[in-house]
Design a protein that fits this description.
The complex is a heterodimer of chains A (117) and B (111). Chain A is built from no helices and 11 strands. With 117 residues, chain A is mainly β. In chain A, strands 2, 4, 5, 9, 10 and 11 form a 6-stranded mixed sheet that branches. A 5-stranded antiparallel sheet of chain A has the order 1-3-8-7-6, with no helix packed on it. The radius of gyration of chain A is 14 Å and the shape is globular. Chain A starts with a strand and ends with a strand. The relative contact order of chain A is 0.33. By secondary structure, chain B is mainly beta. The termini of chain B are far apart. In chain B, strands 2, 4, 5, 6, 9, 10 and 11 form a 7-stranded mixed sheet that branches. Classes of the chains: A mainly beta (117), B mainly beta (111). The interface between A and B is medium-sized, with 25 and 26 residues.
């Protein structure tokens, strides 16, 4: 069974500071990894994903994440926080597609990011 | 193009009532997922369709929950005899290749 752990349910940073949101996963097969952002009363929006290839992936709004197999981690970073980054962020894992796998997502508990001026 | 849409956006039901939640996926997306998101939690998988075939319903919490996608496009999640513990946001997603695209969700409140 797959699982995702997001360390820290709340993270608070100052505008312009580094954003670091932590995600660790467990999976019995090489995973696909995702970060989604959720603004109040809205659905989930994909920030970035890792499937294969380069382990450092870049996403929208200046976010990036690095897949570290040895640490089973996929932490999300952004060099300089903006007020508009305030939202809830979810890390998710899925089995690779192919065969009988179809890619259902297992999510972490979420991290609420607060950005103050 | 249009994204995934869900209706209603908000639903208040009295305990014991039946409810039906609708999902309109992105046109042409074969795969469709339903998730349940309780307050303060991450979404949890309910069920999966490939076209009209329901291939996985392992996440449905009880036999009061039923989902269908009869023509391989619009899907409906039905909850019979709603209970307070059914209060949550119900999210629908359709997928292309490896990416799932989510709708805005239906917030169900059971009184």
């Amino acid at each position: 069974a797959q699982s995702v752990t997001q360390l820290g349910s709340h993270v608070s940073v100052s505008e312009g500071a580094l954003v670091l949101l932590r995600c660790n996963y467990s999976s019995s097969v090489p995973p696909y990894l995702f970060w989604y952002v959720q603004y109040p009363n809205q659905g989930l929006q994909l920030l970035l994903k890792y499937t294969t290839g380069a382990t450092l992936v870049k996403g929208i709004n200046g976010f990036e994440a690095e897949f570290k197999k040895s640490e089973t981690s996929f932490h999300l970073t952004k060099p300089s926080a903006h007020m508009s980054d305030a939202a809830e962020y979810f890390c998710a894992v899925s089995d690779q597609r192919g065969g009988t796998s179809y890619g259902k997502l297992t999510f972490g508990q979420g991290t609420i990011l607060t950005v103050h001026p | 193009g249009a994204g995934v849409s869900q209706s209603p956006r908000y639903k208040v039901a009295k305990r014991g009532q039946d409810v039906a939640l609708r999902c309109d996926p992105i046109s042409g997306h074969v795969s469709l997922f339903w998730y349940q998101q309780a307050l303060g939690q991450g979404p949890e998988f309910l069920t999966y369709f490939q076209n009209e075939a329901q291939l996985d319903k392992s996440g449905l919490p009880s036999d009061r929950f039923f989902a269908e996608r009869p023509e391989g496009s619009v899907s409906t999640l039905k909850i019979q005899r709603t209970q307070q513990e059914d209060s949550a946001v119900y999210l629908c997603a359709s997928s292309y290749l490896d990416t799932q695209y989510f709708g805005p969700g239906t917030r169900l409140t059971v009184l």
